[in-house]
Write a structure and sequence with these properties.
The protein has about 130 residues and is of the alpha+beta class. The chain has helices at about 30-35, 50-60, 80-85, 90-95, 100-105, 110-125; strands at about 5-10, 15-20, 40-45, 65. Helices cover about 40% and strands about 20% of the residues.
Length: about 130
């Protein structure tokens, strides 16, 4: 059994919200509940989140869409490459998160205890 962590961070790279997902699930499936009720000006994401439904939702919210696109997309959307460079903040967050051995190895047996460890690690990362 594998687990994916789908995370949303703010501009400085601090955890805002996250969701645990089964390892075999597409990343884009849990994006709507992740961003529900949160206002933001832009969403920066990689091509795993290149979904017409997500892009339509972001356009409806008035948020700037900065998502790298699958090469097979028939109608490519414009991508602000300078703003896309800021995606490294979420990658940095995951690198810091995986410094905690219990998270990197998924040592907790239940989702509840694993979630608690992620919150604890995020608090420690934020306090540094």
């Amino acid at each position: 059994m594998t687990t994916k962590i789908l995370a949303l961070t703010d501009v400085p790279g601090n955890l805002v919200r996250f969701r645990l997902m089964p390892g075999q699930r597409f990343d884009s499936v849990d994006v709507p509940p992740l961003i529900e009720g949160i206002e933001f000006g832009a969403l920066i994401a990689d091509k795993a989140f290149d979904s017409n439904a997500i892009i339509a939702d972001l356009n409806k919210r008035g948020a700037t869409v900065i998502i790298s696109q699958h090469p097979g997309r028939t109608k490519p959307h414009p991508l602000d490459r300078e703003m896309y460079k800021w995606r490294h903040l979420i990658e940095n967050f995951f690198c810091k998160l995986k410094e905690f051995k219990r998270i990197a190895m998924r040592a907790d047996k239940t989702d509840k205890s694993f979630t608690a460890m992620i919150y604890r690690a995020a608090a420690i990362i934020h306090s540094r």
